Amino acid sequence: MALRQIREIGDDILLKPCRDVKEITPHVRELIDDMFETLYDADGVGLAAPQVGILKKIVIIDTGDDPHVLINPVIISQSGEQEGSEGCLSVPGKYGIVKRPMYVKVSYYDENMERREMEGTELMARAICHELDHLEGKLYVDMTKDGLHDVEEEEEDGGEKD
Amino acid sequence: MTKSAKPGGINKGTALRGIALDILLKAEDMSEKQEDLVNRVFSTHTGLDKKDRAFIKRLAEGTVERRITLDLVIDRFSNVKTEKMKSVIRNVLRLGTYELLFMDSVPARAVCHGSVELVKLRNMMGLSGFVNAVLRRIASERPDIEAIEDPAVRYSFPDWIYELFSSEYGEEKAVSIMKASLENRPVYIRLNITRTDREELKKLLRSENIEALEVPSHPEAFEIRNFGDITEVPGFREGLFSVQDISSMCVGEETARILEKMKPEHFLAVDVCASPGGKSCHVAEILTDYGKKTGYTDLHVISRDVSERKTERLIENRERLGLSVIETGVHDAREKEDGGYENRADLVIADLPCSGLGVTGRKNDIKYRLKKEDILSLQELQREILSNTDALLKEGGHLIFSVCTITREETEEQAQWIERTLGYRREAQRLFLPGDGGADGFYYAVFNKLR
Question: Of A87, A140, B284, B334, whose CB neighbour count within 10 A is largest?
Answer without folding.
Answer: B284
